Protein: TBC1 domain family member 24
Amino acid sequence: MAVDCGVFVDWSQMGDVSRDAAPGKIEYKDLKELKQHARSGQWAKNHSQRSAVYQQLLKALPCRTVTPDAAVYRDIVGNSNSKRNPSAYPLPEFVDGTAVPCYCLKAESVGSVHAVLSSIAGQFPDISHCPSLPPVTALLLHWSADEAQCFESVSRMLACNEPGRRLLDQTFLAYQSACMTFGDLVHKYCPAAHKLMVATATDVLEVYSDWQRWVLGDLPFSFAARVMDVYLVEGYKVLYRVALAILKFYRKQCAAAGSALTKQDSAAVRSDIQAFVQNIGKSVTPDKLLEKAFSIRLFSRKEITLLQLANEKSLQQKGITVKQKRQNVQLAVNADNFSSEIVSAKEIRDIWSWIPERFALCQPQLLFTTSTHGCSLNRFYSHCEGYEPTLMLIRTTDGEVCGAFLSTDWEERKRGGNKLSFFGTGECFLFRMKPEMERYEWVVIKHPELANAAQSTDDEQTGAPQSLEKPATDPSHLSPFLSARHFNLNSRNTSMFMAGNVDSIIIGGGEGNALYIDSELNHGRTERCLTFDNPPLCAESFQIALLEVWGFKDAMAS
Structure:
């Protein structure tokens, strides 16, 4: 069995991996043990054991009734152990030019990957964009007895129909929304790395669009194989984790090198990260990479799925469902059309880099400014209602600048009648521009121990694949992610995002208000609050020289 499942491998490159050892344990009834073995690299040194475990995992995937198997491949291609000329099997268009990684395969085995992918294209005509398929196929070929078995394994991953679970993006819409979702996760879990990207790359989302390639394609084989172990056990979320860990290590290397933070073309930054990932073994071991990946306390699969749905909806609303020129997909603040009396075009671009990716597709639209509409809270509401989200900018009479990204339509305040009641979601954040730009997010993001996901048996805890329950919010709503209703919060003080009535507006609550503004939009206060755990954003008591509210063009509240 060991020889059969290593027929495509160049064993001279495999180091101390055993080709002939007995498989050992291959069947797992205890899901926690399975997850622990996958994460710890239990199968890394035993080729036949890893092969047998993979076959068990792939056969256990719930799939569509009609899923092509090994027999179908043999009918199409014939002898599946023949040497293949890659040029005879051109790669499908849906791989978007992604080359087949060598991954310690024999040179002639690349032709086998081409042949499998060509057959996949014929059997799955609905796939329109799947650049991760060549590396996934090349990895699975390692642990396959022949091409037909590899074809069946890939087919099962593509045909998996378990609710709420996906293994591979198969359309440009799914792929691009995953890139946006990754960008959102970087904002929240890798703020230092994101700050580096904003400082060095002209187009941050273009850099983040490479995230899947870092994990499936650029990582050396010994790393990619370990990622595949946990990917097949725990699912797509693992890819996010590993990519975030890669970005954290990249930032650490840049900091250690003391590189000057100069703006450069995004292609140069992308090339630099790719080179780092391809040579990651010089500074990080596979164990360290996975340890870092699983130390990141991501929210539940349900929350990430809600965000993915919202990002897909924003792309659909803009007609971005197939690949097109990048400038139609990436964030862009047009300096020629942007005019604020508070911040410059460069500063608004920096603020734009913090907002959720689905709104970064939108142009800023001035809704209200005290210089034109006057200092009236009623006029503030009348101009801002119906827009979601909004961005508030404040300049004080002392020249200090601060503000807030507010996830929810101000009309929500009416649900509380005349009573001042809080609303909004954990996507809200505060910021100040001077002396240095700083953002202050929902405290639960940095301290997840303050809240537990409302779903009592999260897939991260049990290791068991969970079906996605019906979301508590309608996924067509523009701000579903991080809604406080999804969490069992230890204190309501940690979810007081925004409030307003005829007398005042308040941003952030709990033992103080991050921003309090009076009904004349003239006087304000700022202090530490529990919801954002922020310092005062400017002088604690301040006079407002100018207040602006910006909306996001084409992002009307639903």
